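Changelog excerpt

This revision adds worked examples to the README so contributors can see how folded entries look when concatenated. The first example is reproduced verbatim below.
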Amino acid sequence: MNVYYLPTRQQNDTPALPLTASRWSVLQARAHRAWWRMRLTVAELSAVLRRGGRNPLEDHVWFVADDNELRRRLGE
């Protein structure tokens, strides 16, 4: 079995970076996420209002047990 040892960290005289994000960056991130949530909500609401409350799947014929039902739905 091979065991590899990594060298220890060198202590530099440079100060460590803060681990917490600034308040401004947190505010920007929250605003960006809120903006995209609002855009998606508006897009979904507009799609619902555009179709007028109809079921979007009612025009599709996937599985029909009766040929007469299929002809009726297709308008023949």
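The second example, added in the same revision:
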Amino acid sequence: MYEDLRWLGLRWTEGPDCGGHCAPYSQSQRRERYLEAWRTLRDQEVIYPCTCSRRELAAVVSAPNDSDDEPLYPGTCRQRRDARVYETPSGVNWRFRIPDGEAITFTDQRLGGQTFTAGRDFGDFVIWRRDDVPAYQIAVTVDDALMNITEVVRGADLLKSTARQILLFRALGYRVPDYYHCDLVRDASGLRMAKRHDSASIRALRERGLGSQQILQEAERLTQ
């Protein structure tokens, strides 16, 4: 990926391959930072241990594959108040207890005002998995805060996740960055380009003989 991005002409001054003042940049090396955030949320009792199995949650309707969304959690373990007895997060899923009915609002730098209602648009979400791995929502929130990120630019499929992350920023006492959500690049059939759909990678396009400027021009055309 590094090689392909450099071939496209992209340059960066921080990252796993070149270091920087916010190192380390690999999430596998940032575990203690995530654990500190988990302890803060545990002590506030805004998260709770969830012992629901996959089989028990299987009846919940799954979100479409073209989104980052997860099904609304039915609330089976929601009333648990034993978070503080856990010394480590391993062995159970940990869910953030959302403020039911609260409208989470923010202004997207491209799409304008956005509002998502907790409990209707999204439910209690996982911040730490039972296999002892921090989930996406807490990892990116902690990283953005501790790396002093001022603007997050990402795909529109993560728009709703911004509302979840705002709740985490608030609970952890972090400043919320600005957000800019881009349109997704899609193929001729309208399907978003992704590895799961075996979409053409930069490397594959290179091997077909396309030049870097051709790829950049086509990407610009597709997003207009």
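Reviewer comment on example two: The chain has a mean pLDDT of 90. The chain has one domain: 20-182.
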